Amino acid sequence: MFMAHPAYRAIFRSHKKDSLRIAIRRLEQKEMIVRVPSVPGKFMLTPKGKRYIDQVLCRIGAFKKAETIKNEFVWDGKWRILVFDVPEKRKKERRLLRYELFASGFRKMQRSVWISPHQVNAQFIERLNGIGKLGGNIEFVVAESISNEHTYMKIFSLKKIVAKNPQT
Predict the structure, then answer these.
(1) Residue 14 maps to a domain
(2) Number of H helices, E strands in the chain
(3) If 93 and its partner were Cys, which of 107, 113, 132, 147 is the partner (CB 3.0–4.6 Å)?
(4) CA geometry: angle 3, 4, 7, nearest 5 deg
(5) Position with higher pLDDT, 15 vs 41
(6) Total structural domains in the chain?
(7) Does the predicted TM-score (pTM) go above 0.85?
(8) Do 85 and 145 share a domain, yes or no?
(9) Measured between alpha carbons, how far is residue 91 from residues 98, 121, 134, 146 in Å?
C-alpha cells in the first residue's frame, strides 16, 4: 500500500502545489491505483499497476544486473549502434523507444543514434520494432570500431581488448 505522508511533501516542495495530486489522479485514471475508502490519503496498487511495476522492475533489474556483473562481462570489441528516424507526429513512440534503449544499457551518441557494447538478441530487436510498429524507422549496426572510441569505452567502463592474432 501507498500513503501520502507529510514527509513526501518536503520532496515535492520545488514542484507546483498540485503536481502530486495530478500524478495520483493520472494513476487512478489509468487504473494503476485505487483509493482505500476507509483511510483518507491511502492508495493500493491494482493488478494492472502491479503488472506495470513488475515490467519496469524487470527492465531496471536486467540493466542493474548487467551493471553489477560488469567484472564478468567480456566485451567482444564490437559496438551495437541503433539509428532511428521517428517523425514528430509519433513522439510518444519515440520517447518510449528512447526509454527502452536507456533501460537496456544503450547510451546516446546523438539525438537519434544510440550505442552499446553489449550483445543484443533478436527478441530485443523485435521488442523495439513492436513499439508503435517502428520497424521501418530503425536501423541496427554492428561496428568493429568507431571514432572517439575511447570516450565510449570510458562511458561503459571498458578496457581495450588485446587482439589474439594481431596482423603484422
Answers:
(1) yes
(2) 6, 7
(3) 132
(4) 115
(5) 41
(6) 2
(7) no
(8) yes
(9) 10, 26, 12, 29
161 assigned to some structural domain: no
List alpha helices for the chain, DSSP H.
6-11, 19-29, 47-68, 91-103, 122-130, 149-155
Classify residue 120: in a domain, yes or no.
Answer: yes
Q: What share of the chain has pLDDT > 70, as a percent?
A: 73
Q: Which structural domain range is residue 149 located in?
A: 74-155
| CATH number, domain containing residue 116 | 3.30.70.240
pLDDT digits 0-9 by tens, 101-128: 888 889 999 989 999 998 888 778 777 7
Question: What is the distance between the alpha carbons of residues 102 and 119, in angstroms, rounded to a whole number?
Answer: 15
DSSP annotation of 83 reads: E
Residue type, 32: M
Do 78 and 150 lie in one domain? The reply is yes
Q: Does position 8 have pLDDT exceeding 90, yes or no?
A: no
